[in-house]
Amino acid sequence: MVGSTKSVSIWRNDRILEPSSLFIIMARLFYSLLISLLSPLFVLRLLVKSVSEPGYRRQWWRRFALGLPSRIRSGDGLIWVHAVSVGELLAVAPLVERILLEWPDKAVLITNTTPTGSEQTQKLFGSRVEHTWFPFDTPLVTGAFLRHWQPQLIVMVETEIWPNVMASARDQGVPVALVNARLSARSARGYARLGRFTRDTLAGFSLIAAQSKSDDRRFRRIGAEPEAMHVVGSIKFDIDLAARRSQLEVIAEELGRDIKSRPLWAAASTHPGEEQLVIDAYQALSERGLSTRLLLAPRHPSRTGDIIKLLAKAGLKYQKRSDNLPVTIETDVLLIDTLGELSAFLGLADAAFIGGSLVPRGGHNPIEAAAWGCAVITGPHVINFATIVRDMERGGAIRVVTDQHELADRLASVWENEGQDSEARRARSFIETRRGATRRQLDLLKGLL
């Protein structure tokens, strides 16, 4: 029914839709149509990416909720946890472990978007969880996915906000939580441009457990429901170093006694364009008379071939971790081309540069390096962890450098100056005072079951 131009409403399912509701319906229809039309390009992108990472074409049809596996674990209900890739999975792993321990009667499904995330899921949890790809965000796909798995609760991680997943969950009466939630200023501006569509999507969250007050403010500003918001801290502070120490001991034995024959530093989760800067810093240290050894861990191990070319051009002697050989006294660089071992390698290092920050990629998590007591260094591009880096910098737990020259200067000071032990203590203390987010988020999740 159409009324006057001042008061327009439409009947739907015996309910009157006001203009704002009509706008949201139309916006979702447009979004769904657009993303459906783009689905062939999505498949093409998977195939292109699979040239360098074959895992992208593995069971790609499951991303469209086709041929989904049957449940292997019995249980009274299922909790679906979505972690995009390795970073998100490692962040939420302590929470998943607590769910498995405290709710043994429930099955857990973990979905990923990237092959590296999938591999890490299988490595960490194996047959203890169900596992498949995250569904493509169209109504038919998300609806079929939820009907197949019938989750009792959906847990998204960090900034995973998918309109049709939310709509399908709402239609099927499944509560959705966003845990370890973070929202950068740049992302908040992007979501804000979508106005009521963003507000309606966020209204589907029964819980948004924000990492910081800044994240909480940004979520509220773009329309999150106040009663759903909680500031709980970051799960990433709840690091279980005990488990990692046993892995560290195994790795150290495999690498042999010469691994520590030189001052050791790590470049963790580096991106294209950044490895050259790290190599430049390494050579600058050599020119200053500091013969160090570099643990170089690219964010994506599939780029190993390109990095080897850079190392060879620089005349550096390198070994690959995947060769599983003891480090020789001549080795300048140990290239970490494996998954799931970076944290343990940080435990070997005296200092750690956190990648994705000397190039504009938003930076990566500095918490594990601090927990190990490394001298932690990052570049200026840290929008993904801006609050954590700011707080660490204020507490003297991290140093921010702007280029490879400052990186070399900072690294040199680690071994040339005294007082580094106090910095390591401040870094560890920073982590210890912020633990407990896993417990707080688990308690909040219990209220949704």
TrEMBL record:
Is Ubl conjugation one of the keywords UniProt gives this record?
Answer: no
Give its localization. Answer: Cell membrane
Q: Which GO terms describe its molecular function?
A: transferase activity
Quote any Pfam family the record assigns. Answer: Glycos_transf_N
The answer on whether this UniProt entry bears the keyword Transmembrane helix reads yes
Give the stretches traversing the membrane: 20-48
User: What is the catalytic activity of this protein?
Assistant: lipid IVA (E. coli) + CMP-3-deoxy-beta-D-manno-octulosonate = alpha-Kdo-(2->6)-lipid IVA (E. coli) + CMP + H(+)
Name the pathway. Bacterial outer membrane biogenesis; LPS core biosynthesis
Name of the top EC class for this enzyme: transferase
Q: Which UniProt keywords apply?
A: Cell membrane, Lipopolysaccharide biosynthesis, Membrane, Transferase, Transmembrane, Transmembrane helix
As recorded in UniProt, its EC number(s) are 2.4.99.12
The record's section on InterPro entries has: Glycos_transf_N (IPR007507), Glycos_transf_N_sf (IPR038107), Kdotransferase (IPR039901)
Residues in domain 3-deoxy-D-manno-octulosonic-acid transferase N-terminal? Answer: 59-239
Protein family (similarity comment): Belongs to the glycosyltransferase group 1 family.
| Annotated function | Involved in lipopolysaccharide (LPS) biosynthesis. Catalyzes the transfer of 3-deoxy-D-manno-octulosonate (Kdo) residue(s) from CMP-Kdo to lipid IV(A), the tetraacyldisaccharide-1,4'-bisphosphate precursor of lipid A.
UniProt-listed PANTHER family: 3-DEOXY-D-MANNO-OCTULOSONIC ACID TRANSFERASE, MITOCHONDRIAL-RELATED, 3-DEOXY-MANNO-OCTULOSONATE CYTIDYLYLTRANSFERASE
Its name, as the record gives it, is 3-deoxy-D-manno-octulosonic acid transferase
Organism the protein comes from: Candidatus Paraluminiphilus aquimaris
